[in-house]
Model the fold of this input.
Amino acid sequence: MQQERKINDEDISEHFPQLSEFVSTCVHGVCTRKQLFKRIPVLQWLPSYKVEYLLDDIVAGLSVALTVIPQGIAYAAIANLEPQYGLYSAFMGCFVYFLLGSCKDVTIGPTAIMSLMVQAHVGNKGVEFVILSAFVTGCMILLLGILNLGFLVQFISYPVTAGFTSAAAITIATGQMKSLLGIPGQSNEFLDSWINVFEHIQDIRLWDSVLGVSTIIILVILMQMKNIAGNKCCRIVGKYITLSRNAIAVISGSLLAYVLSDVGNVQPFLLTGNVTPGLPPFRLPPFTTSLDGQSYSFTEMIAELGTSLITLPLIAILESVAIAKAFSKGKPIDATQEMIALGISNIAGSFVSSMPVTGSFTRSAVNNNSGVRTQLGGITTGAVVLLALGLLAESFYYIPKATLAGVIIAAMLFMIEFHAAVEIWRTKRVDIIPMISTLLACLLLGLEYGMLVGVGINVCFVLHQISRPIVAPVRLTIDGRDVLILQPDQSLVYSSAEYLKYLALKQANKHPDAIIVLDGTHISSVDTTVAKVLVSMTQDVEHSNRRIVYWKWNRPAQCTLLRMERTLFQNLFRNDEKLPKVIEEGFPKQQTTVEV
Done:
């Protein structure tokens, strides 16, 4: 047998960096010119800005503004807020992202999903809770960004995201049925909305329904104008008609309502009503409030926000980072920087009465299709929204609710990810389970619980996979001796330890005369549980007068096992590439000779 090798404690001990060294490294990394330019991206691209970019940025900013104004008013309705709060939420993110954003196409503002999440948690508690939720959401996102915890959203897989997005689109569209049909109702939840429709089916208003359905049909038609055939001029006209389709629908509906109301003295539609004119006051978010005669302290308001303290930041990060990646065109995206920009956008927005905001895929697509060159386009968008608040707020009175409902429903039709279901089914059919589970759970239980169900199912799939490593046995004969090679196909964690022991002993019992070789090629590390189980397995093998060798295990895994039981393992590791040499050195022939 090979001579015993002496191993010192220092050879196998774990080394941790000292706290002072760690803090010094972090501080030095933050306080550098490179880090400053990295965390304030405007310092990188603005000095090289070209004048010829200006027109493209202005046109793109105007296109986004024409989209966000009607959407903002509509999303405020989803969140059970007055219309002006949707516009209050539409400009601050543009200005902050101009300074801190890393992707020129991304636009920050109100979105349908965030509005629905707000309504589900705090939409019925008063606007002060909504504004505070924006502040807290921003603080949470900023903290996660600073601590580089953006990886948390990676636990939300593509099937779960597709199911969540589709369920949110269906829920939002369903919640607009009351406005589309002109019937009373408050709830925006899927089941409650349909129950409300059937309970008030006799109250359906004909002209609201006609206007709402017509709006949807017109928007779908205008969506196809970008594919119009013809010369270059026709294609450009069709492109910008498509980009401004929401504004066209809202302006047309408002003009129709105005003409019928002021000229024809009839009012066939339910209207948005008064929109408070003027800019929002710049002040601290409300840290105390009173509602229905009850006073709430800051801690009581935080308690009322409940699970939204977790779900709103995670959904906001997921949307914004996903959009940045979608429009990055192969360029690396700094998720930490996107989170910092999004967090500060929410914090700054809370000072102007904004609800929680995130990146908007629809408006980012409009921005991209309009040919935006830099983040300067956001300045135009924010400025136009401020002008609309100051000069056009009174004209918003005549916007029919059915038109806004049609705008939202038409947008949601393109958010339902039918293509994702087909793609998932074609790629790996088992992944359709978390998608459908998330979709149904979101519709029946609510978005936040549906997301948890989807993530939970996905985690169960992952846990099952890592706890059941494939161990393919290979039996060889080397120099007349049987050798059984067992090679796990993945690294080992505590949940896979007993399963590995079961498979190894099962194969060993089938070949009682074979030398067992445990191949660690794919094992990068082991934990305490795995080490404890391997000690037990090795002892079981040796007690039955069997022989075992640990082949090609890396140093971290070896050190962990040696720290657990040095005497047992110190002569069992072999790192030679050639297995015959390992067998020859570790188990000379004379040891396997049986005297008769």
Q: What stands out?
A: The first helix runs from residue 9 to 12. The chain has 29 helices and nine strands.
